[in-house]
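sry for the spam today, last one i promise. C-alpha cells for design, 63 residues
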C-alpha cells in the first residue's frame, strides 16, 4: 500500500493549495464572462439558441 514516508513541507503544501485555488478562480472568471456576454447579448464566438414561445405540446394534440 502506498504510504508517504515523510511529512509534506509547509511550502509544498501551500504551493499545491495555491494551484488548486488558481484553477477555481479561472473557472469562475470563464463562467462569469460567459454569463455577462449572454446577458448583454454581446456574444460572437458561439451560437446561442433562444427559446421560442410556440408552446410545450410539441405537436401532440389533446382529445
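last one done:
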Amino acid at each position: 500500500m502506498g504510504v508517504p514516508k515523510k511529512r509534506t513541507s509547509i511550502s509544498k503544501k501551500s504551493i499545491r493549495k495555491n494551484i488548486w485555488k488558481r484553477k477555481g478562480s479561472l473557472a469562475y472568471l470563464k463562467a462569469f464572462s460567459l454569463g455577462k456576454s449572454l446577458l448583454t447579448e454581446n456574444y460572437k464566438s458561439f451560437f446561442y439558441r433562444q427559446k421560442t414561445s410556440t408552446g410545450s405540446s410539441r405537436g401532440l394534440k389533446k382529445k
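Helices lie at 10-39. ok im logging off now
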